[in-house]
Amino acid sequence: MRMNPPRQLWGLSFALGLIGWGFSALRHGLLQSNAYDLGLFDQWVWLISQGQAPISSMEQVHVLADHGAWLLYGAGLLYRLLPSLQWLLGGQALALSFTAIPLWALARQAGLKERSCWLACGLWWLQPVVFNTLLFDVHPETWVMPAFAFALWAERDDRPRLWLLMLMLMLGARDGLVLVIGGMALDLALRRRWRWCCAAFGLAVGWLLLLSRWLYPWMRNGEGPKAADRMFSHLLGDPLSVMQQLDWSGGLVYLLLLALPCGLLWRHRSRPALLIGLPLVVVNLLSASPSYRTLVHHYSLPLAVVAVVAAIDGGLKRPAGRRGPAWALIWASACWLALAKPWFFTGPYLQRLPQLDQARAAIALLQPNEAVLTTSYLVPQLSHRTSIAFPKRSSTHNLESREWMTLLLNPDDPGWGSSPSVQRRLLNQARDRNWRCRGWSSGLTLCQRPVAGQLSLPGNEPGDTDPSG
Questions:
Q1: How many other CB atoms are there within 10 angstroms of residue 459's CB atom?
Q2: What's the Cα-to-Cα distance from 174 to each of 160, 307, 319, rounded to whole Å?
Q3: Are residues 292 and 406 in the same domain?
Q4: Fewer beta carbons within 10 Å, N or C terminal of the chain?
């Protein structure tokens, strides 16, 4: 079956992608992006583009040992043309917006009228987790949401080669997407498509074994999957204690929030599609981190695709009344307004607005080859270098531990994962060692290791502060 989405859909998807890119770029420009994960991925991709080993200076981890995301090597080719993290932000926004194209195709494939196909696209664009993921830095799995939806279309249209290609693209974005492919195997088993089921299950298990038994131990000195110990170690106990440690109330709220935008359109015939999300939902419910059970982070993004496909298979197939699907669109819009975060641009995202000029002035004084220790929200502004990190609250950073050349810290606004005491201690160490320091009225302080024959920072002596900023 041919797809044939209308030109208007392509144009609207492109326009919404540009708008989403504008939102994410604005957030980054307001110093609201962070080391995890935008700075992390930006440094990896920049190192790839420079022909250097893509090993993070923050985690000391190779890019493939993080989540097996080999698609980042493709992003490195774009960085060779123009080294800018806007490739990451723009690619994410456009991928999320263009996921509507295969969803339209799925709706047409299901026999829906054009009006209902547009509604399916609207339900995707109005998923709160889609907008929130757009603003939550960058994550490679966002790039393959169109591939996920295309895989579902290809399977239903009996196109095995295209289906397998889409699945392999998904695996190249994040190891966690094996859960989604495993869920697809469950769906296929329920529909007795045994050959397809075995192919999906074999691909998911094979990739997981390849990463956990070979690639990760090889690149991490014998360690296994990154998230396993941190997120699920609490499950290694007697059943009673495990049951007591689970976040039951948070899990119930999470399930309700997942179902709110599209749940009214789910029907009995939606069950096979909903089964695709079951493994990911279970893992999110069992995780020790509550961030897995919110619509703020990216961990639930594939479930938004599942929710819309379940609506296509369910209530959208029912003959529309005189009002048509307007009520569903109104309800989805209300959920978006309640659960998405556009209002952050009216308050929380403006908190560092007074620091912008001072941060730019400080960044202009840095050299590309300097090893910089800075705040988490300045890491993505400086991550095109081989050595960049932020002083974590839990770490014992000191100036002897690594060859740091520059500190750019703000104890008054230490950012995520750090603390005022940690940053003051580092700045005091720098002053005690006669580093050349300059401060701004916002609390931002730049200290640089003295180099023989190098002039002091413009307009300041060691330890001076610029009160005017």
A1: 8
A2: 22, 20, 39
A3: no
A4: N
The residue out of 346, 376, 410 marking a domain boundary is 346
CB 387 within 8 A of CB 366: no
Give the 3-state secondary structure of 321-366: CCCCCHHHHHHHHHHHHHHCCHHHHHCHHHCCHHHHHHHHHHHHCC
Q: Do both 339 and 367 map to the same domain?
A: no
CA trace torsion 363, 365, 369, 371 (10° rounding): -70
Contacts (Cβ under 8 Å, ≥6 apart) of 71: 140, 143, 144, 169, 172, 173
Q: Cα(402)–Cα(314) distance, rounded to whole angstroms?
A: 58
Residue 215 to residue 15: CA distance in whole angstroms: 40
Check whether residue 239 and residue 133 sit in a common domain.
yes
Give me the number of domains the chain comprises: 2
Please write the tens of the pLDDT for every residue from 263-288.
999 999 999 999 999 999 999 998 88
Strand partners, 436: 448
What does pTM read for this prediction?
0.90
Q: State which residues form the domain around 181.
A: 7-346
Q: Which residues of the chain have pLDDT under 50?
A: 319-322, 455-469
Query: What are the tokens at 453?
Result: 């024959």
